[in-house]
Amino acid sequence: MAAVGERIVRRWPSWGALAGALLCYGLSFTPSLLPRPWYLQAAAGAITAVFGYGIGAFSGYVVRVCGPEIEERVRRAGWWVLAVAGGGAVVAVTAWSVRWQGDLRRAVGMDPRIGWWQWALVLPVALLLGALLVLCARAIRLGTRRLRRILGRAVPNWAAAAGAAALATVLVVGFVEGFLLRGLLDLAERGAALADRTTSPGVEQPLSPTLSGSPESYESWAGLGAKGRDFVGRAPTAAQISGFTGRPALDPVRAYVGLRSVDGTGFAEGARTTAGLAERARRAVAELDRAGGFRRKVLVVLGTTGSGWVNERIARPVEYLYDGDSAEVAFQYSYLPSWISFLTEGEATDAGKALYDAVHAHWSQLPADSRPRLMVAGESLGSYATERAFPGGAEQLTGQTGGALLVGPTPDNPLRETVTDLRQTGSPVWRPVYRDGQHVRFAQQPSDFAVPAGAAWEQPRVVYLQNGSDPVVWWEPALVWRRPEWLNGQRAHDVSPTMRWYPLVTFWQVTCDLAASEAVPEGHGHRYGLMPAEAWARIAPPEGWTQQDTDRLVAYLADHP
């Protein structure tokens, strides 16, 4: 056992392993979608270096087994070359990466200057993290070899090797998924559930009967959850809307149902099943009807993110466009943030459909000449939940709604994926043109709404807001082995021309970009600023609305967040 441990755990890395690690470590510094803080660069460098280590170690093993014997003097020369060239390359790429990061920061409107003392921490932190990962991998290998020796006493060597590998895989996967991952998820959910009981500073229970959580509401203030309380507690009043428009206004309707609405505990299993989603959708329709939402001029069904959050910059513009003669409805289907909900839970797949179907069923029974204009909207995972309500694609979406706004869509949004795949030849993947822009258009900045130039944009209108540098939009597992289309041909204006695709490396770079997607100025990454107001003014402009009105609304919302 000691001899095996000496060979596997404490053995000095091979030449191929270190060469692979150095190569991938250097590539991890190359530009990606967003500028990275030093600690994310350290994580990206460590992870990619470990994969390079594994590839290099395997390649070296193949060479040793299949290739000619290498003389000792050649080995020594190779190690000297690796030490000198590798060390020089690490210093050079670290220094050059400061320039790359400066270019990335400049592209998204940030100060291009970077503190050298921070970037100097990348190497030691990456070394520590990489060493821990290699140690874990070697410990697993040691355990697998030990299992093989034990099994080899009873079965042939080939069977012992296969059995040991299979058993080790089961144990590792079982530990990660059944203990480590499940434990972390349970901890995250309990923490999120506790946070759901809090109320943001400045948010108070509304008194207007048009808002959920008010004294007249079917839904209690406590049952709305933290994000629901934010949604109704930050609704503009009729007086605020009139202050902008100069015309009489109504208090807008905002209806919301939280996870705690049924029994108040927040952990009712029935609330998280398909039946539970249907029940909350029914309650949302009842609350919307109570507040007078079906008697307003426009009605928007909102898809929420994992925690039930609704972006105020998506919700508020419609209320100002229509002098408060509007209604919006949403419900919560999880406590967890979107990135965890998307990976671990299936509620988003059914939540959007459950809410839209319930609202549409009630809306369809109303007289056609007096019911509100029905529209849908969602951001990030909320856009995914919204799209799932329309399995018939763009034709169903435009046939059953009066317009749609989908912001920062995920790579798995089925409707967006179809529209993008069927885009007109020559249009880039980051701003696709679908059926000459007749109903569906993509934008990052206001000028994009005019693409394609000269083409009629008919009602109902569907707008996708997606930034060229938004990793939430462009991350996908295929980045491991396939060059993405958004790096081919013309690129979005905020994507670095020096960004290149490297197998595996780019995947981890964009994965790290996800963590920094909100740490950039508006208009880049996963921050869409006031573009939703620009979009709503084009999706559903009131009669007589002009571009000057849009500019004034955008300026007003910027001053009154």
Mean pLDDT: 86
Largest sheet: 7 strands, parallel
Low-confidence stretches: 1-6, 263-270
The counted number of beta strands is 7
End-to-end separation: 65 Å
Provide the gyration radius in Å: 28 Å
Spatial order of strands in the largest sheet: 1-3-2-4-5-7-6
How much of the sequence lies in strands comes to 5-15%
Annotation field: number of helices: 20
- The helix content, as a percent range, equals 40-55%
- The 3D shape can be described as elongated
Order of helices and strands: HHHHHHHHHEHEHEHHEHHEHEEHHHH
Q: Return the domain count.
A: 2
- SS content category: alpha/beta
What does the model show?
This protein is α/β, with parallel strands linked by helices and 561 residues long. It has two domains: 2-191, no CATH class; 205-467 and 528-559, no CATH class. It is 51% helix and 6% strand. The protein contains 20 helices and seven strands. Strands 1-3-2-4-5-7-6 form a seven-stranded parallel sheet, sandwiched between helices. β2, α11 (312-321) and β3 form a beta-alpha-beta unit. α2 packs antiparallel against α3 (38-66), α10 runs parallel beside α13 and α11 (312-321) packs across α19. The N and C termini lie far apart (65 Å). This is Membrane protein.
